[in-house]
Amino acid sequence: ISTINEVSPQRQQNASTDPIKSKVVKEIERIAANREQRRVKHEKHRRKLSEVDHSIPAWEFQAMINEYRQQLGMKYITMNEQQKDLRITVCVRKRPITKKELNKKDIDVLTIPNKDHVVIHLPKVKLDLAKYIDNQTFRFDYSMHELCDNELVYHFTAQPLVRSLFQGCNPLVFAYGQTGSGKTYTMGGDLSQRDVDFSKGIYALTANDIFHHLNNSQHRGQYDVYCTFFEIYCTKVFDLFNDKKRLRVLEDHKNLVQVVGKKEERVETVHDVMSLIRRGMSVRTSGTTSANEHSSRSHAVFQITLKKKNTTKEYGKISLIDLAGSERGRDTQTNDKVTLMEGAQINKSLLTLKECIRALGRNAEHIPFRGSTLTKVLRDSFIGEKCKVCMIAMVSPGSSDVDHTLNTLRYADRVKELNVDELKQR
Ligand code: ADP
Ligand code: MG
């Protein structure tokens, strides 16, 4: 028996090494395996398709996007991720799709597969009417998926810059994106409830951190803290702490740019800062029909300044900027003269801003900050070796905003060009 048992596997092996027999066996096995693979794939596909809401006109696109997502191994960013010490940081934040968007049958066309990539799925139709999705991948310093909260966004964007404030720097944080993409939510906090909550916005989180640093023995009793808040509409500057009084922008003989006469409010607690934000924001939108209607046309600049005790000279200043809606810069389809002029100014300021940051990134001698009022006012922050800039590009996930979203991703990509890594398929 033992001999038979020994021979049998030997013969099997002979069969598979026998060139003629093994070819046939292998072919049969291959066909069987393929059939099984196809069966599993179709079964999976059927199941996937059945998860899709077929009442949505774009359901086929939704199914394709779902399938793409299922092939990716998602690995989201968490607080455990290392904070990077960067001169220029570019971060993309996706907001959740809203009920309103779902009601108008929008589908979610953005995927954040990991901590630094973004994939936009462009629904396309071929000449023969076959539908397909064109997936475009971008890479940034950080990418935040729709469930990230403001604290996580703050941790990787403004927080590293607060430290530099205590080294006498003038860091900049920008919220960029189309109207409705979440700029004010990120900077100011959740204003959608009746009881608005400013405490989780980047303004308040930054102030909180600054006061925290001031309580360290190293800094205690050394600085006074001031806030200013103004908005830039076209080439004009208005003080939000002083009933929108018009402010002048002057350049002195040493090329120092000053916003003359802006009201500085001394603050001692985060509460002081939050009540100032409340005041400034209500002044900003007073007399307008909707908050977004007004804020889409102007840039809001909130600054927190440190001064050494009993001096008037600014030691360090952080500027937190809620930019005008990026879609406004492309508003060229209108006959309204004022809207056209606003659009042209917004376009100019956003392009100049991008060029200033790019110039900073390559250590250029010349920074083109004179190109717009926004960059002129922020001149101090663009000059000097230690300046740091963070751009948070906000994106809406809905398919009806896909063109604006693509433009935002392209803009952010131009601010700092990073190579895209190949996304790992499962
Ligand atoms: P923007 O200032 O860019 O025009 P908003 O900040 O006003 O946009 O956001 C538009 C709407 O989306 C608001 O109702 C806001 O509450 C909501 N929103 C924005 N971002 C988020 C988010 N990350 N999570 C939940 N809701 C958000
Ligand atoms: Mg806004």
3D architecture notes:
Helices cover 39% and strands 21% of the residues. The protein is of the alpha/beta class and 426 residues long. The strands form 2 sheets. Strands 1, 5, 6, 7, 8, 9, 10, 11, 12, 13 and 14 form an 11-stranded mixed sheet that branches. Strands 2-3-4 form a 3-stranded antiparallel sheet, with helices on both faces. A hairpin with a 5-residue loop joins strand 2 and strand 3 (117-125). The two termini are 47 Å apart. The structure holds adenosine-5'-diphosphate and magnesium ion. Residues 95-96, 177, 179-185, 190, 192, 292, 394 line the site of adenosine-5'-diphosphate.
Please count the beta strands (DSSP E, at least 2 residues each).
14
What integer is the average pLDDT?
89
Q: How would you characterize the largest beta sheet?
A: 11 strands, mixed
**Strand residue content:** 15-25%
Radius of gyration: 28 Å
What's the short story on this structure?
The protein has helices spanning 2-17, 19-51, 59-71, 99-103, 150-156, 159-165, 183-187, 202-214, 270-285, 291-295, 337-361, 373-377, 379-382, 402-415, and strands at 88-94, 110-111, 117-125, 131-139, 142-144, 172-176, 223-233, 236-239, 245-251, 257-260, 265-267, 299-308, 314-322, 389-395. The protein has 426 residues and is α/β, with parallel strands linked by helices. Mean pLDDT is 89; it is low at 1-7.
